[in-house]
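Hi C.,

You asked whether I'd gotten around to modeling the 157-residue construct. I have! Everything is below, sequence then structure, no commentary in between.
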Amino acid sequence: MARVFVYGTLKKGQPNYKHMINTAKGLAKFQGRGRTVEKYPLVIAGKYNIPYMLNIPGTGHHVAGEIYSVDDQMLQFLDEFEGCPDMYQRTLMRIEVVEWEGKGGAGEARAAAEGIMECFVYSTTTYPPEWVGLPYHDSYDSSGKHGLSYVLRESRD
């Protein structure tokens, strides 16, 4: 099982969370909440209002999200869903555990107790330069006060 940190539409209560609980796509178990140890710019961009974490460490905010333990089948689905490696790239990042519910082995419990663990994160290095000038967010909510509601894939033209 791999650990994945999600910060956008795949979180609980967000438009694509349904994929995280669809066992036909693989297994994803919620483990807890966290935030990036380093700061990153989280922007909402494009005509479909998609959240992107730009891979520019040291800029922006500590981004909040959820930690999941996923099997190989779900990881492969997430790679395809996230357009990896063209739209997003899956990289390991250090995540500070804020709240932990996971029931893993001793190594996982120790990492959670120490407060920092490595997780795969879908961020991007392939973005238009003007995105760096967009507002930076510390957390994402599709119906947040930013007024930029995410457009589901099935609703896009």
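If it helps when you're writing up: The chain has a mean pLDDT of 92.

Thanks,
B.
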